[in-house]
Design a protein that fits this description.
alpha/beta, Rossmann fold, seven-stranded mixed sheet, 29% helix, globular
């Protein structure tokens, strides 16, 4: 399967949050056991803003801390399950690999089990674990363009492609 790429122009932080929320809501329509989204771009490009909005749209309450120093922040999601007519508890992980200086720190961190297991994983700075991460369902690249942001979404799996296909047309033409 060849990846699908979508290029967007985001006018401001609100547009970044709107995109992240739309992708999160698309996932709730057809949740999968595992979702991996990687977020890359320079410092200040909007990776943490995206992750916070994604988690917020999935119902995370309270403070959503940046994992820059802790490496990992874990949340619990209540995802509707139509089969059981109720909700399922699903873990969500926000991971920041910025402080990794060697890709092999990935092995020492124990994150392989977290990201490879069930739940939602949002990984900032994935290039710091180059070649060691599982295949991302969706890769999000953010880069400043003056006051705006350029965003490129790479849907690398069927799940990622489904998320991109279900984005509202107004976002796709951004």
């Amino acid at each position: 399967m060849s990846p699908v790429a979508l290029k967007l122009q985001l006018a401001d932080e609100h547009d970044t949050e709107t995109l992240a929320s739309a992708l999160a809501l698309a996932w709730t329509q057809h949740p999968a056991q595992r979702l991996l989204i990687t977020l890359d771009g320079d410092l200040g490009a909007g990776k943490t803003t995206f992750a916070r909005a994604f988690l917020r749209a999935l119902g995370v309450q309270g403070r959503i801390k940046s994992p820059s120093f802790s490496l990992l922040e874990e949340y619990s999601l209540d995802i509707p399950d139509l089969q059981f007519k109720g909700t399922l508890q699903t873990p969500a992980y926000h991971i920041d690999l910025y402080r990794f200086s060697d890709p092999h720190e990935w092995d020492d961190s124990g994150l392989r089990d977290v990201v490879g297991g069930p739940g939602v994983s949002l990984v900032e700075w994935p290039q710091r674990a180059q070649g060691l991460l599982p295949l991302a369902d969706l890769s999000v690249h953010l880069e400043p363009a003056g006051e705006q942001r350029r965003c490129t979404l790479h849907a690398r799996t069927e799940l990622g492609q489904r998320l991109v296909r279900t984005l509202p047309e107004g976002l796709k033409s951004g």
